[in-house]
Amino acid sequence: MSFKLAFIGFGRVGQSLAGLLNRKRNELKERYDLEPTVVGVSDIQLGSVMDPEGLDLPRLLQHARREGSLRGISAPEKGLSSLDTIRRSSADLVIEVTWSNLADAEPGLSHIRTALKKGCHVVTSNKGPIALKLRELQGLADGNGVQLGFEGTVLSGTPAIRLGREALLGGEILSIEGILNGTTNYILSEMERDVSYEEALEEAKRLGYAEADPTADVEAWDPTAKIVILANALMDCDLRIGDVEREGITGLSKDDLMKAIKQDRRVRLVARAVRTRDGVRASCKPEEIPLTSLLANIHGVTNAVVFGTDVQDEVALIGPGAGPQSAGYALLTDLIAIGRSMKR
Ligand code: HSE
Fold first, then answer.
1. For residue 343, what pLDDT band results from cuts at 50, 70 and 90?
2. In sequence order, what are the beta bridge partners of 315?
3. How far apart, in whole angstroms, are the C-alpha atoms of residue 157 and residue 126?
4. Helix or strand holding residue 133 (H, E)
5. Is 262 a catalytic site residue?
6. How far apart, in whole angstroms, are the C-alpha atoms of residue 245 and residue 272?
7. Strand 173-179 and strand 302-309: pairing?
8. What distance in angstroms lies between residue 29's CA and the mean position of ligand 1's atoms?
9. What pTM value is reported for the model?
10. What value does the CA radius of gyration of the chain take, rounded to a whole number of Å?
11. SS3 string of 259-298?
12. For ligand 1, atom 8, which residue shows the shortest CA distance?
């Protein structure tokens, strides 16, 4: 099956997916009968190129990585805006990987709406549109007979959404708790090793874990958006970011962390959603948890999520929670899942 892809955004995450598509070309064909071609790329910094016959992936990557621009690539159409790329390309699947904006979800929201309305599948790791408008976007996808994949919005390439939606079949998810932000868990773990907050944050930025504006990480907006996404996708509710009790890690000192450890506890930024009689209640804040608990033993950029269901008390998933490599892999899993479902 041939898949025509358009990348909207071609930063580290988009390039990571492109690298995987290139490296796994044979495997995709042999194991999944998928032959994706890239027919358009539009990036606010790198420029945009479009070719209905397909663009050369290694060249795209080389220009993006070495020259920091796609402008040197020859293509029938160049310089289109991201929206025009979606409107005019021959893509049947749009990969939306622009920056995350939790205030009004733009420009990702307009990209995704436009693509779905046009009848294109969408895969995205962009948290803003999914945290703010999942119901609307899912309705648009359903109404247009296409799919919306957003695995990479939570726990990056560690498949939390797919586990909840597709593996825990027949069970009702009653609670979700987890460490949903790689940057802050990395910072807290480093501070426990006597590294300063500032140094740890700088390193998290360098490694590509942090958001473009790391306030989203350290003030817990990012994991708050993620618990909203998990709850809305898996617990049949319609939470807003403002419904979540939120507190970041900026008020914590090394002393606070060490004092907790002396009392056999550890401070972690824990996100929770719990079904109550009055609906789903959610929070995301630093908690002192017993050293014997699973979440107290999650270190560095690793994330974890624990689902409580009506038939099984706890089902846990642990894995990388941030970084371009992991986010690129999440997009690949969505793409393969869409390809598979189209063959049924
Ligand atoms: N900034 C996010 C994090 C990236 O640190 O978890 C992955 O969503």
1. confident
2. 307
3. 13
4. helix 127-143
5. no
6. 10
7. antiparallel
8. 31
9. 0.97
10. 20
11. HHHHCCEEEEEEEEEEEECCEEEEEEEEEEEECCCCHHHC
12. 322
Phi (first) and psi of residue 218, to 5 degrees: -70, -25
Amino acid at 140: L
| Choice among 226, 254, 262, 285 that is catalytic | 226
Specify the 3-state DSSP secondary structure of 175.
Answer: strand
What are the DSSP calls for 187-254, one per residue? HHHHHHTT--HHHHHHHHHHTT-S-SSTHHHHTTHHHHHHHHHHHHHHSS----GGGSEE--STT--H
Per-domain residue ranges of the chain: 4-157+324-342, 161-320
Domain spanning 161-320: which CATH class is it, in words? Answer: alpha beta
**Exposure of 165 by Cβ count < 10 A (0-12 exposed, 13-18 middle, 19+ buried)?**
middle
Q: Give kind and range of the element (H or E) at residue 156.
A: none
- What's the pLDDT tens digit per position in 86-128? 999 999 999 999 999 999 999 999 999 999 999 999 999 999 9
Give dist(CA 173, CA 49) in Å, integer: 44
Q: Which residue has the tokens 């979800």?
A: 105
For the domain bounded by 4-157+324-342, which CATH number is listed?
Answer: 3.40.50.720
Q: Which of these, 33, 300, 323, 334, lies nearest to 155 by C-alpha position?
A: 323
The closest-lying atom of ligand 1 relative to the alpha carbon of residue 321 is 6
Buried b / exposed e across 278-304, counting CB within 10 Å, b at 16+? eebbbbbbbbbbeeeeebbebbbbbbb
Quick one: pLDDT at residue 2? 85
Contacts 24+ apart (CB under 8 A), 68-71: 70/10, 70/41, 70/43, 70/46, 71/46, 71/47
